[in-house]
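Chapter summary example.
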Amino acid sequence: MKHHKTQRAIIPLSELPLSDDFMFGEVMRREDICILFLEALLGKEIDHIEYIDRQKDLSDSGFSHGIRLDVYLKDEKGTVYNIEMQNTSGDNLEMRVRYYQSGIDRRTLEKGVHYADLKDSYVIFICSFDYFEQGAAVYEKKSFMTATGEGDFIPYEDGSHVYFLNSGYKNPNAETPILEYLDYLRTNDDKKVYTSDLVKKVKDAVHDVRHDKSKEEPYMTLTMKLEDVRRDSFRKGREEGREEGREEGREEGREEGREEGQEETLTQVIKQLMESQGWTFEKACDVVRATTEMREKMKKNLYS
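The structure predicted for these 304 residues follows.
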């Protein structure tokens, strides 16, 4: 029996969509684009922003999991923003947001400074799926307090803000620039005429990256490396599974060994990607397309 190798087609840089992690990072690193995006989403003026660091590491002895943020910046008032592209719908994104914000607060509040001086923080997830399945283009977290048994709601304002954007929206509950941004993200349609300065600039930026020869090598190197990692991880998992099966001498042994081998190998791959690429655990899992069940097992192996 012949075994045919399967390899996913690599999208050329010249065709890369905004939704791709590499392209998203390159485009959202542009100050004018990020300001227009935040102003349109939040409805406030921003004079200037400062990129603290792409894939900022917020790990310390108090955070065993570690936190690495994709696009991490602050404005002239010290307000901190984290913007992430989410292409795979994982579980517990709300808990991830909570963990991110705790890490941001820990780093932004200097020792000896009063809690009242904590700066506002925004975590913004731009999703290629509808996480809350209500059809909205934009979801905003709002917190309230209420006396037990009574219906009055009191705004609970602690300076933390969370937004989930949905490129597959049905309800256009956002300003035109954001809706056009989500449309472009979803369709990758360069021929459509957009009216907002935001998406006009985004299109130009995407075009620049696609035709920037200096980006070709880092993009292809990263893409090929990730493809090799995927292929190698599953090959090792199959080999270890077959070996375990031979030792056990039964079908259950083969299946159990195959799963254990794949789990161990993927755990090492995830750890390598987090260290070498500065990704979060979830983003590394997205790249290797780990299932929810596999994520839970690997999380226990990494953080137990």
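To summarize the output: The two ends are 42 Å apart (CA to CA).
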